[in-house]
Amino acid sequence: MPDFKSHILPHVIAVFTFLLVVTLFFNPVLFESKAIYQNDILQWEGAAHELREFRNSEGEEGLWASNMFGGMPAYLVDIQWGNEVLQHVQSILSLGLPHPVRITFLCFLCYYIMLLSFKVRPYLAIGGALCFGLSSFMMIGLSAGHNARIAAIAFMPLVLAGVHLVYERKWLMGAALAALGLALQLR
């Protein structure tokens, strides 16, 4: 039987710490209905317009975006994948937080899990996760609108944790964690 104080409480404190930090950091987004100006997202909306119109009129996905650089495969611009299961998993992991709060919270959580897999003490892992999630690269990437890149980086620690656990001979847990991290990263 796990001892609550030593086995469960540090993880509960970690999740509440991560929630507190993103709530304080993204206060205008959460409570004042403000949004971060993301220039690349505005550019993407223009690039995806043709594909969205095709999807709405034809009821299927377009495979080529002719308005991008003289033509570009649609999967690089805007295509809807059938990944509802992964969307639900991501929503559960991020506690239903809105964008961009969700990505930062996931940065914290995934890095925390990775540090735990390397046997870092939970309270040090909380500090490491906060440093990772609030690093200038993450914040600048979010403000520029590089959402997919930052989300992919946020899930990379899960893949690394899974690979590490496999090397530690924790086959099932490692494979499951690596597979989950990779699936979320590719999504």
What's the count of strands? Answer: 2
The level of helicity is: over 70%
Largest sheet: 2 strands, antiparallel
What does the overall shape look like?
globular
User: How do the strands of the widest beta sheet line up side by side?
Assistant: 1-2
- Tally of DSSP helical segments: 9
- Uncertain ranges: none
Amount of beta strand: under 5%
Quick structural overview:
The protein has helices at 4-25, 27-31, 39-58, 84-93, 101-117, 122-133, 136-144, 147-167, 171-186; strands at residues 64-65, 72-73.
Strand and helix layout:
Blueprint (H helix, E strand, L loop, with lengths): L3 H22 L1 H5 L7 H20 L5 E2 L6 E2 L10 H10 L7 H17 L4 H12 L2 H9 L2 H21 L3 H16 L1
Antiparallel strand pairs: 1-2
Helix pairs in contact: 1-5, 1-6, 5-6, 5-8, 8-9
What does this molecule look like?
The chain has helices spanning 4-25, 27-31, 39-58, 84-93, 101-117, 122-133, 136-144, 147-167, 171-186, and strands spanning 64-65, 72-73. With 187 residues, the chain is mainly α. Strand 1 (64-65) and strand 2 form a beta hairpin.
